[in-house]
Protein 1
Amino acid sequence: MTQGSLLYTDFLAACRAVCGEQFVITDTAEKQIFESEWRGRQKGDALAVVLPASTREVADIVRLCRDANVAIVPQGGNTGLVLGSIPTAPQTAIILSTRRLNRVRQLDSDGNTLIAEAGCTLAAIQQAAAEVNRLFPLSLASEGSCTIGGNLSTNAGGTAVLRYGNTRDLCLGLEVVTANGEILTQLHGLRKDNTGYDLKQWFIGAEGTLGIITAAVLKLYPQPRSRCTALLAVQSAEDALHILRLAGDQFGPALTTFELISRVCTDLVLQHIPGTRAVFAQPYPYQILLEISDFHPSAHTAAVWEDFQQNLIQANLLADGVLATSVAQADAFWKLRESISEAQAKAGRNLKHDIAVPVSRIPEFIKQTEHLLSSRCPGAQVVCFGHMGDGNLHFNVSTQAVDRQLTPDALNDEGVSRLIHDQVHVFGGSFSAEHGIGAMKRDDMLRYKSETALSLMRAVKQALDPAGMMNPGKIL
């Protein structure tokens, strides 16, 4: 379909009849914000950007696309990291933005559930829950702009996975528009429903390739009565692993966050992010951001923390440590953690690797992989941080300091990523922990997934989207 064709004109007119004139965008300049990947790495070229305001409108648009043989790229906040929410081929697909699907439809504080439309930002859902003294625990650096539809479509993780699980674990039901334009409604919010296949799981983590999530029932939790946020300094990843085990034994489910931060990360943040400052008088190889959230009074939590800290000192695991004594200080600790990606971007181009390895093997993985990388690509700098408590590391690499004249055989960027992902595979891990596959990691799927797994995925795709119109070029 081309812009000059009568079919194109008729198709757009039909879309405008569904959504309204101003919500079908074809102007090149107006489309750019939707077509551009937020980090500027790639730009798509959509036939149009369509913004429906209801599930019924989404279904109508999907049927129009089906009849006109136009592909659909669903898009929420467009904050993804794997090129999953922009078109891969020019002028063959519309971007279907869920930004106008932004209502909290229902909030049940007794049943601890909330029904939100797909275009609700994560921050808006957190705030709605907080207004009735409830907690929606999913927390990401992009929570002010990412949407719950995107979070579900990528099965986002975040900083509280250790206690509450991924987005998949926080969802009780979905409303989905299928590739045929039919509406699947499962918004009952039941904790137990053993009536056949759990259909919502087909669409969570599918990145819009099987259908379009339009609403979800989400789990809420009571607001914790107390929180302890601490920044610990350690000499090695091995010491961090020992502390993680002791923290799990000491705090049980109250252990909410356990983030590993390498010295390189801290140095980048202090250098590039205004308003940040070093917590410790001297630098250490690693820092741990640890948070406990509990339902006991603050005095009890503080006493338990003091006991834990003394155990670490006696075990010679703690080089230094600071417990936040105010909300402002806790926020400052979190700013050091949440600013790493921004600091990396300011420092220059870097290769991002969102990986998972068994928790018990994290120190060994870091040591071996850093050694391999230094020998195969001298000058490459590893920026390692992430959710150590659940095995998810962001093992990012900057190759700007690699001198190609001195070491012409040094690995190129593709070779660096291949080395890291091969190592992940050797350690029994995953090359994508929480960012998804999108268009960026399709080749990795072929390299690391078994043929049996890929065949089953293709069978599901064929069954639910036989025409291949839902987010083509992503995952498979």
Note: The chain has 16 helices and 18 strands.
Protein 2
Amino acid sequence: MIEITNVQKGFPGNSRAIEDLSLTIPDGKIVGFLGPNGAGKSTTIKMMTGILPIDKGSITLNGIPIDKNSIEAKKTFGYVPDQPDMFLRLKGIEYLNFIGDIYNVPQTIRQERIDTLTKQFQIHTSLQDYIQTYSHGMRQKIIVTGVLLHDPSIWILDEPLTGLDPKSAYTLKDMMRQHADKGNTVFFSSHGLEVVEQLCDMVAIINKGKLLFYGDMKQLHEEYQTDQSLEAVFLELTNDE
């Protein structure tokens, strides 16, 4: 479970990027995080993962505060950033072993997971190549594989489907569903509204740092008295007059 309570975040020369945000992402659910560019999605996710400090409020992951006990909190989640251009001078296998070492994944389990995941994502034949030679989609796949390697209970994914081919995107969506169905937490941002509508149990919509809606599709339709698609309601909610 992720608990975001009365969180605020600002940057120099800018109004608050996040304004008094409270959000509970429960176990056993896939929660989609939506908002237009600049709405505060990535800022929120970076505070959740400890990359950015919290100005005010608190964020806990499985009851562990990210700002006060960051090491323990970071052991509970896996994070896929919106830009997978990291560790480019490492070979694919070197990166995965590096992640395995950080999280103390035993060699037998590590190798089994590496074999399974990289074959599912169709990158097993490229593990001896340097990540800098990978396409954007392949870089995304190696980062996702690293995230899943230590089997964290919480997945925090920032635009995880971007750059993936249809088969790999289907595989990841199926993994997300299975992970949540086991009682774990999946939180992901996306611009793919149809994917969110089909896959997610709950949807959070943010704009200009403020939460506009949080609930399931039934609640969305009831609150706004409409049977329109998520896309239509989203565009109406985030329309800047």
Note: The mean pLDDT is 91.
Protein 3
Amino acid sequence: MLSYTPAEAQQLPLYRVPGLFTSIDGLIAAESTRHGGVSPAPFAALNLGINTADDPANVDENRLRFFSAIGTTEFGFASAHQVHGTAVLHVTEAGRYEGYDALMTNVSDLLIGVTVADCVPILIYDSGQRAVAAVHAGWRGTVGRIVQETITQMQQQFGTQPADCHIYIGTCIDQHAFDIGPEVATQFDASLLGTNPQTGRTCADLKRANMNLCLAMGVPASQIEVSPFSTVANNDDYFSYRAEQGQTGRMLAVIGLKNT
């Protein structure tokens, strides 16, 4: 249950900007919170997900508020109907594409983004070739190495070098809340597994798993930022599909290049 009143929630930040990206000219990157929107419970308040039972008019207003807050109302926006796979799409224009969990572009004034409510959002900026990517990595995408596939696709399409990549691994379910069964646990390296102290069940660290994949590709550790927040432990600020038993909203993690 949220500890904020609706009036107080309007004063809280609609989004956070990864510190890794704050000093990069011409780059816009943001991760929304659940604050500052118009949706009622259980989607309170800044629900940005169109595949929910929320009133579409609420989601439209919430998206307008979010895009206005980050200064991208004049940008095109590209997203996808995510399927928990590993397919990566090179996008050059706005639209909603079917069946992809990662988008990449080098087109200016085009924002790309992924929706999340426990899965890992990953934002990538290639400083060498001036290209960006947005990745949705649930446990299937993580064990399928979607972040590595995205960097590989950026190499082939743009000439991206891992050493030039700056990567934000965003807010998601934390290790101690991500209980998994044995059939899933066997797909993770043992070093990524732990035990939920409350349930005694095996759990996995999705943030560290994706960080390790980036490091293995040759991305410098100094160019990787991992969100300190958790959708479950910080459920007052972020939507969590698990913590709210599927009745909740969605956040957006977005990235784009300004036309300079």
Note: The two ends are 44 Å apart (CA to CA).
